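Late entry, written up from scratch paper. The run itself happened at the end of the previous shift, but nothing got recorded in the book at the time, so transcribing now.
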Amino acid sequence: MKGIFVVGAGPAGMFAARQAAMAGYDAFIFNRDIKPGGLAEYGIYPTKEKMKAGLRKQFGQVLDMPNVHYFGHVQVGEDYDITIDELRAMRPAAIIFACGAQGTRKLGLPGEDAKGVYAAKDFVYHYNRLPPFATMDFSTGKHVAIVGVGNVAIDIAHWLLRDDPAHAAESVTIVARRGPVEVKFDEKEIDYVEQHISKPELVAELERVRERCARCNQDVSAEKLFEEHFRRMKSPDFVSIAPRLSFRFLSSPTAILPDASGRIAHLEVAENDLVLKADGSTSAVSTSARSILDVDTLIFAIGDKHDAHIGLPMGPDGYATEPATGSAAEPHFAVWDAQTASALPGCYVVGWARKASTGLAGIARHDGESGAAKAVEFVKDQPDSQTISSRQVLERLQAKGLTPVTKADLALLGKAEAREAQARQLPSFKFSDNADMFAAITGQKKEAEEVQLSPAD
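Output as recorded:
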């Protein structure tokens, strides 16, 4: 039998498995988390229930395929539950890595280990109830700074300003390295929080950076910015509400200053100049000028990086892939070994494991399918690898002391969560602790056994 292993069960991994199964191969999914979905389940904003429900349905259809096998609660990596070499010992015909970008990216600043300093991905996992992040301390104070100006930063601001049950934040400040013309968030995301922006404060901030932006031919007039990025502010009836959302442009963090308790109390930022490059883009260059922002929480929303502990060869941008050739080269999915200057046979990366922090679920799906097509093409020309059966995979994992979650277990967990949602009158419910999930699965099994043992009426 030729089996294709898939590491990771986000959109890229699930649809890579589907592609492999549709080609007639057995697809074996190994997932760090108990439940599948990845960032589609634990990254999309909590209240976007329709989007999440649609993706869950699609993932369920993948798992319903008889030649797709699932092993949740199994983390692959040199320092984790099972190594890549141990996977290879199960004789897969190919391995597709869809494990995302689980490393956190910060800036290496003095004081970065202070309390109240978080990576955006971890913070998003926390409020999206992913174990173990859901039960870890991600407490926030009254004055929060978010470094970064993309959709993730705005999502976090949305949570803090509107939906955080603690309702602790009185102000949220978005710290941006470049100017207001180069913000990366979408109109639909800023629309959720735009009413929390003070129009006079934003106009004053635009004026503060106007001259520096003008040197790079950037018009940051309020009229232009309101038209392009803050459309609700065009209305003469616009009135802002608390808590407050503000922006600090042309600023780069340089140091984190904790208080006596070890929690961040101030953020030092450098004032930046913009430099126009030959291709028309800009770069931000720090000046000697410094400012101090009074904050008690800092969240880095500056992208993610690949986890070197997985055990894949690393390149300058993450997991190493075959070097591009030509000016319009198509994406390369094959993992590249720089020591031998060749691709690792049957080894591929897809989704954020190929290119970190790029695109949403739709793009990840396409990437997973494209990478899986390359794997299938490779496997077709290979002799039978005699991949072990799903039962044997389960036995090997259990022999290591692991507690893999199977498709049957997921079905039982789904029933328990649906029951909780109904009891709590919620559109959906998910347990935020692995122990609770296992308890729910066990409880459903016991109920099923009791039904089978009960005498017929």
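The chain has two domains: 3-101+307-405, 106-302.
(Scratch paper discarded after transcription.)
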